[in-house]
Structure formats: structure tokens, C-alpha cells
Amino acid sequence: MNLVGIDSITPYEGVYEFSVYKYDDKIDLGNKELFVCDLKIVLTKVKKQYIEKLNKSVNALCLVKNVNLNIDKKNLKEELKEFIFQEVYEENLQKDNIDIMFIEETA
């Protein structure tokens, strides 16, 4: 599944928000079947004294909400990691350092 995102501008440094859609030759925002989910990505930088110990300098926490019910969440995790890796530029960010968390809203 190819994904494309519409970036929502946030006033916070290190925070990114996207509405994610399946990409199929054209983007039809009115088509509910192409909508995948909403993302909020928060980047955290590791303190200098812990970089060697943790073997990373940055971590990304991705909060996923409003997931399309027709989408399998197991396959979605890897697709979202790839999407974040391509869309969010942060030096030294690696796919292994991206944590995905699904948020379910209850009534």
C-alpha cells in the first residue's frame, strides 16, 4: 500500500501531524475508502551522555487514531514506519527508533 499524507502545521518543534491516505494515481480526499488514519508524531532527542548506551540519538513516538476499520493494523505498522521515515526529516532517525501506538476512542 502506498501512503501519502497531508501535513497539518503545528506550532510545536518536533511535533508533526498528518492525515494519511492510500495513494492510487490520484488523491480523492472525499473518498472514505482511501483514508487510512490520522498521525501525531513526537520526536524526542536523547541526552548526550546516553547516546552511546542506548545506541540512538533520537526516538519518534507515533500516535495513530481514527484508523479506517477496513485496514489491518498488523500490516499498517510497517507501512507507517516507512511513511514516517520518508516524510519526517530528522538526522539519525532510523525505522527501529519509531514506536507506533494505536489510540482507541471509547464512548
- Measured as a percent range, the helix fraction is 10-25%
Shape designation: elongated
- SSE succession: EEEHEHE
> Mean pLDDT across all residues, rounded?
89
Descriptive account of the structure:
The chain is α+β, with helices and mostly antiparallel strands and 107 residues long. 18% of the residues lie in helices and 36% in strands. The protein contains 2 helices and 5 strands; from the N terminus they run βββαβαβ. It has helices at residues 51-54, 73-87, and strands spanning 3-8, 15-22, 35-45, 58-65, 98-102. Strands 1-2-3-4-5 form a 5-stranded mixed sheet, covered by helices on one side. The longest helix has 15 residues, at 73-87. The radius of gyration is 15 Å and the shape is elongated. The N and C termini lie far apart (31 Å). The mean pLDDT is 89.
